[in-house]
## 1
Amino acid sequence: MPEKLFKVNSEEYILPGNRACSGCGLSIAYRYVLKALRENTILTLPASCLTVLHGLYPITSVGIPCLNCTFASTAASASGLVAGLAAMNRSDITVVAIAGDGGTFDIGIQALSGAAERGTDFIFVCYDNEGYMNTGTQRSSATPMGALTTTTPVLTKQQNKKDMMKIMEGHDIPYLATCSPAFPIDLYDKFVKAKRIKGTRYVQIATPCPPGWVFPPKDTVKIGRLAVETGITVLYEIENGKFRFTGRSKTLAEKGTRAPVVNFVEKQGRYKKMSMEQLGQFQRWVDGKWNEYLRRAEA
Amino acid sequence: MSNVQIMTGNSAAAWGARLSKVQVVSAYPITPSTSVTETIANWVERGELKAEYVRVESEHSVMTVCVSASTVGARVFTSTSSHGLLYMHEQLHWAAGSRLPIVLCCVNRGVGAPWSIFNDQQDSIAQRDTGWIQIYCRDNQEIIDTVIQAYRIAEQVYCPVMVCYDGFVLSHTMMPVEIPDAEKVCEFLPPYKPHTILSPEDPRNINPVIFPWQRRDAEGVLRDGYMDMRWKLQHALEGSRDVIVHTCRDYAELFGRDHGGMLWSYRADDAEVLLAGMGSLATEATMAADLLREGGIRAGVVGIRVYRPFPREEIREAFRNIPAIVIFEKNISYGYEGALCADIKAALYGTGIQTPVHNYIAGLGGRDVKATELAEATRSSLAAIAAGKKEQQTWLNCVTEL
Amino acid sequence: MEIKDDNISAMCKPSIGEAGKTGDWRDATPVIDHGKCIASVKNRPACYLCWLYCPEGIVKAGIPIEIDLNYCKGCGICAEECPARAITMVMHEEVKK
């Protein structure tokens, strides 16, 4: 019944009783990722929160074939699946790599760059919860400025979030997109579209994390929504080089009424040591990126 | 109809892969293994070898591609050396733990720091604990034959196989090699049947976290904990000994060449001293044995062909009733002794064999090792043994004082 | 005679409850007021934001809606997102103390 309302595949590929945290943003996103991809998919994933969600031997919580790999190697693992399946005449199967921000922005970046540069026919999904959350919230290059993590426990993260979308754009790939579990239908539609495209597709999911960002689990969707409202998370697609806002970000771009970043920051314990100076810098950084996107959308 | 060509060790390795009809090749250039992958790239782009060729950006990714391609059922091949092998170390463990029949040619080269591009065996010896079968080749003919045998062994025992041969000494030296008949190779190699299931028809999650303890699955079957799974790998490695020996014998029957199974010996029957080594160093030792015999010393050679699984029984048999053993090797386990020497001595433990064993570290970083030096070292050891020195570690032709 | 594990590498099969009955995790239980739930009130498929946002996918979007309390982790997102305020998270007595 809800599938007709929301126009989504009704199948649930994630079984209940799994090890994801209560209120996990990834869990919400992953439901729709898999609904969009459907059965004819093989996943590969590195050490990450998702490894834990998938479960420990001999039981798995996910009904899609999956190959675990080492932390640095996700995109290479996918490359091997693509090559192996081609050799076995099973290129009809969609290969999907799915890693956290650590496995994408940091330790996984080399293999990802290589796979994208080779035009490997796969989808690389990054669920970005802005830190190494599986191991208890250490900082990654995706952690925003001003955030506390266990490896930036006193002074907070000093650098801005790395713009991974820009880096991936530099690889000449046919499709890139950002999305959020707070807007699941926008997310679902992007994955349905991605599945149909040939070549390297990169999708980044802005994933709120209750324990890591320090907010109550009931607020996961609210925080995700606030990220979009403030322009910290921007929902967009770049298809064959053409930039396009989508969903709520499109509306904001047209109406120009973004909320100030402080609304987002004040709701999370990870920002409790953020200085006023950092807050100002953060607002300017978000504004700068937003204006850049506005220019691209107009072009 | 004999098809003998003059070719380098690297060409022989590439031919071995081609005849084995490998389906996925992923390799990264590194001296002195590069021409293996260049040869294959040439064949693939000309349509002479039908394989997916993945030009990855690092050796870590090389082995990752091999793992996932092998998991879905493709026969895979790669080659590397030295730091390339070291870079994929994590993935070597992963491949063995995944029980995948990957074949890798390690073109032996010294490791840094500081840099060496020249031959020694430190690279592959340092991987001896990873769960890979390791075979050391003496000459280019053995390389092509062993690569083919490696697929049969690997796909039967579900363990990856490392075919090692000395960089530059073999990789870049031209020798006559008979290229086996392609159809006969097809007859010799049955198709690869993966034990891994990775397909939408039967969704599984492969190699996630495993607990220390056993755990029941949804059907109530008690499944392995980590250690039980690891015992299976050890059991497979130990069991692979018989498969290696039979494969070598079957190959000899079909192709007329027997490379010795686990180890081979040369003029060892009446020996008063046995020289031991691996790869081209063992070949050099046969020339040293000839020189010694000319001088009146009854020397023989034991060439260790398979290093892992370690040929415990064969070693015990080969070194029974031998008054002196001299082991030459191109590696060192820092803080102890040469790995081969340590393993041989351990194999002799408990057998009652009290033979003095002398260890020579030779040829590190490509330092030339001549048969005359091996013969001289042997003479020197025999004198030391006569004077009562049961154990000794000598670095051959090397500055050994500060 | 115990059947031995025939796997030589770790291959898992899908099954519910990999982490057990995760309903044990929660401190508060969602209670639905079907008199406020839009789908129940309209007596046709409607809203279902609880189904949409549930991280566990354990909301049955029927008329009335049902939550599988065996596996509900008690995150409270459904209660938070319900536009009709039809779901209340009721704290467990032990936790209140």
## 2
Amino acid sequence: MLKLVVCIKQVPQVSELPWDPDTGRLQRELASGIMNPACRFALEAALKIKDKIGARITAITMGPLSAEEVLREAIALGADRGILLTDRKMAGSDTYTTSFTISKAIQKNIPEFDLILCGASTSDSATAQVGPQLAEELDIPGIAYVNEMEIAGSKARVRRMADDFFETIELELPGLVTINASGAVPRYTSMRGFQAAFAESDIITLDSVSLGLSHEWIGAKGSAAKIRRVYSPTAGKENVVLTGTTKRILDQLFMLFDDRIGGMIGKDLKTDKS
Amino acid sequence: MFFNPSMKHKALRKALRMFAETEIGPMARDIDRNATFPWEIVEKMRPLDLFGLQAPKAFGGADMDSISYAIVIEEISRVSAAIGLCLAAHNSLSLHPILRWGTEEQKKRFLPEMVRGEKIGAFCMTEAGIGSDVGGVETSATLEENEYVLSGTKIFVTNGGICGTAIVFATTDSHNPREGAAMFIVEKESPGFVVGEKEDLCGMRANPVSSIYLEDCRVPDKNMLGLPGEGVKIGMETINVGRIGIAAQAVGIAQAAFEDAVVYSKARQQFHKSLSSFQSIRNYLADMATDIDAGRLLLYRACAAQDSGNPFREEAAMAKLFCSEMAVRAANKAVQIHGGYGCSKEYDVERYFRDAKVTEIYEGTSEVQRMVISREVLNRRV
């Protein structure tokens, strides 16, 4: 039977993210975690394959203990088992150490996998790097930003949107795809699935020791990228209220914004007063 | 004592909220205004097992605990109380009595279709002359060979216009209606089962609450739920369970009103500052938040009591009483915070205000809840 691996990240739900101003990191413990939207689409793509030709799906996530929740949700939706990579020493990982750690867990626990599916990017950091890096770590072909896919024998045929055209690409399995948050709308969790996933689930928890990973290679220590500062972008905004008669308002409007109005109508209003 | 929700309950709330906001949210205002029941939502709720929340797995149900049930009703009602009402009436007033008092044969016959949501349940108790005083039931059930002939009119039947299976309260003894009271499972197709016009309601308008006319409606005698004479007991116990659903609905409505009030008070500027910077408005919001939390705790305590298998009559009545009155207070304050806009149908708080009111009335009025609670209180040694 086809063996699929779906990589899932738990991301904070709130739009106003609570940052730690000293470390520049997200204070995840303050935010309510949800399954990253693109990961939900990746899981849906795997479930579609399972519905059609049968497959055994392993959901894998790296995060705090509470990330177990997204694995149970994945099992409620139809995944067969979950692997939780959790260890305080894995905290602060950049994309390189994240993909490295996940690759080791896959090599150790699911060495005979056929296809790995990742969300194209996450809603909290949006690097879109972990999927492609994971393909490199495992030395398998990888295709990013996939919209649709099907399995044909030992190959996967995928379709993705390039600049202004669609590409259809075949890749030899084992391989990796990252799935865009578009295409087949993810299903909702059934209440029966939910009850079952929280009653009896096949979830294993692995830490750096069980994976045989030196602390020098993982987490903040192994990460090449250091976050210097995180801040919300602000745009300087000013409200201007024009008063007076209509003629006066219009005069002021042109005086203040002639370049922008001119830009819109394609005229240089500074020189062309007609 | 443990006050933190479990991972399961937190995840369940998120999942239901996503479903309700995405699928029901966009139409919630229109189905209220036009008083139309959205069958397309039923189609979407069926595969999620929302019509078999607490039914055993053997019948295709989700076999949920009571707190999970409350969370489902709360989250659906937060977006559309009328849809929350449909699920609460189906699950706790129709499915529940069959699960609890039905024979194996009755369960096999009726449950699968109901659990799949192919037949929506309704509970027919109220008549023009009887509300809380169920002992005065006038709908008669006369045994003719192996059929009961039901005759009478039931009013204010939630899900009346869409039901496939109804639980009907009637009496086999017109001289001693209480002693002869019995419950019957009646299918919509039964001869003489006639659905009347739907009510033009104040709130919960998307639910087709209707009268049901039983015009010599014939049902097989094996459709009687429990024994002759057990009707009042079954009815009262069922309504007791139903109170948890109504309390959950009320918490959902109050939560929605509170969230809208918070958003509006931050955005609305008066005297060059946001409403949320005025102490009066902040006090309202603080009271609402405290009220909702208190209600939710009472609700989950009643659920926990039900899950533990202990009696929960008093807990359910307290939760229902407090949560329904709390929802009316919260919706009222949310309208007040919205000012003139709160009285406009352009804003959802106007709908919450109308929806909240009936939670103080059905499944026993607030006055009846106080009767129930005071009886329990006075029976105890102090």
